[in-house]
């Protein structure tokens, strides 16, 4: 988002009533969730080793989408307290993706490694960490809604998305 677009959006938001602000945030939030869901659909297309690599790529894209949404809606300082958590997840993703690529090369030669179970456990831990990060980031807009009903609807939608992510992952 360009700075002029952000300033225009911010001015519209500041001048609006709480109800209008809730509507604007809700619309933007549901557009985000729709984009995230469409990215998840890609996970079903790939098979085998390509499926795992697609998962890593999709996870990165989901994370970027959520971060860009929060930055666009609430400013670049909004995630200041969460930078370390996001970086830790990114580092775990890189490490596991690298290990998975090595595993994929080994599988071409039918090599079996004693680290296979460790790799699967690391993958499960990455999934858990990713779900926690997404749950925290997606809950951020909840504090910005004025209406209790909008808060409840947003949280329910996020829970549905997170459950979908967990099942497809």
Structure description:
This protein is mainly α. It has one domain. It is built from six helices and no strands. It has helices at 3-15, 18-41, 48-74, 83-108, 116-139, 148-168. Helix 2 runs parallel beside helix 6, helix 3 (48-74) runs parallel beside helix 5 (116-139) and helix 5 packs antiparallel against helix 6. The longest helix has 27 residues, at 48-74. The protein is elongated. The two termini are 30 Å apart. The mean pLDDT is 83.
Which properties best describe this structure?
elongated; mainly alpha
What's the layout of helices and strands?
Layout: H1 3-15, H2 18-41, H3 48-74, H4 83-108, H5 116-139, H6 148-168
Helix pairs in contact: 2-3, 2-6, 3-4, 3-5, 4-5, 5-6
Would you kindly provide a brief summary of this structure?
By secondary structure, this protein is mainly alpha-helical. Helix content is 80%, strand content 0%.
